[in-house]
Amino acid sequence: MAIVRLATPLRKYSQGKPEITAPGKTLKEVIMNIDSASPGFAEKILENDEIKRFVNIYVNNEDVRLGDGLNTKVGEKDTISILPAVSGG
Amino acid sequence: MIVGLKCRNCGKRYPEEPVSICEDCFGPLEVEYDYEKIKESLSIEKIEKGPNTLWRYKDLLPVKSKVVDLKAGFTPLHKADNLAEELGLKELYIKNDSVNPTFSFKDRVVSVAVSKALEFGFDTVGCASTGNLANSVAAHAAKAKLKCYIFIPADLNLGKIIQTLVYGPNLIGVKGNYDEVNRLCTEIAGYYDWGFVNINLRPYYAEGSKTLGYEVAEQLGWTTPDRIVVPVASGSLLTKIWKGFNELVEVDIIDEVKTRVTAAQAQGCSPVVTAFLTNSEVKPVRPNTIEKSLAIGNPADGYYAVKVLKESMGTAGAASDEEIIDGIKLLAKTEGIFTETAGGVVVGTLKKLVENGEIDKDERVVIYITGNGLKTQDVLADYLPSLIKINPDLNEFNELLKKKTTVKEVAI
What we know:
- Chain A is built from 2 helices and 7 strands, in the order ββααβββββ.
- Chain A is an alpha+beta fold.
- In chain A, a hairpin with a 2-residue loop joins strand 5 (55-59) and strand 6 (62-63).
- Helix content of chain B is 39%, strand content 16%.
């Protein structure tokens, strides 16, 4: 199962844990599987079947918007990070 | 006179805490003020009697008590007649923020953020940086006696690495681009209780940039220019200058804002310019440019920057690497100001937009030069004349002058 690292506002869906594991062959499947266990999770980060504007998701440190988005393939040992969009350097 | 924080996206309100993200919609939080109260105590006279730093506008900044002050701000506004003539503009000014204590505009935001870190009781501050922020956070942390962790792309310009290391922070070079450094840093911020200036302190930090709006208005006799050209990385600076102008109206210091805002990016990393010109959402890109300080491929405030461009009826443009170098040289040769690559982007973009008629020659234009050329000397090495060498002998110098070519031509 993939490891999913969660930003602080999402940790209420993981009993406060900063990371959890979840099954799924694509990013969307992983998100929907977490949502089945913790309803409301998907709605928090997705809108109209797309990643919300202020949410960034990375699979193995790669921004999925630069690749296949929610269809990004996820392997057993992959790490997913769901983070807020903040920057300025 | 802060009321608290408010989500820019959904409007949900939060108390004044070190948080930057709305827990409902992930939107960015912004500081909210009681402008009616500010109006009661603020006046032009009060501002003009204040210190010659950004703290002359303390009433409009989110810091209550002690400030960490390296004397940033209130930098010169040059009337740039030579550059104006070169470009065919009637009235051009340069806001030269490269003369701040660590030689970039970042001292404004960091002075506010580190002051706020002290207010919140943090013992450690940090940031993800493309260089200028690293310099400034390290310096302000030293002054405030705070521990400091700074994360930068490992291949950053040598000048910026040295200018950070000298202040004694924990400097970590990450093998990746800024977006990767920033992603790592955002993850780290979720695990450690530190004050990251551009993450959990971001709502306060970003407010420091408003002073670049206040100062230009003050230096133009409490009016705003017809046009500003601003370098864009995350998009925060541009949106905050706009906020600064509009706040002056809100507190009755000026009557109106009729400024068209123009965004300047490097062609090799121009997600905001592209979104504006194609009327689409900001899409992340992989940066590929010599301009590293603006190389944010996934700009967090890009959406709001585009909104300001539209609201102000402004425009946007991008400069190629060659135009960036030419821009640096043109500014130095005409106005005696040596800027880093971000300044080259601004001058290069200005030149292009004047040439294609998007900026009218009659407009009163202010360009923001936000960083010092000494920070990125390495990019110029191949584009400047080589040194003329002679022996310490008067005849040899006379011979040199006698050559039919001028000294300048010999140099080239």
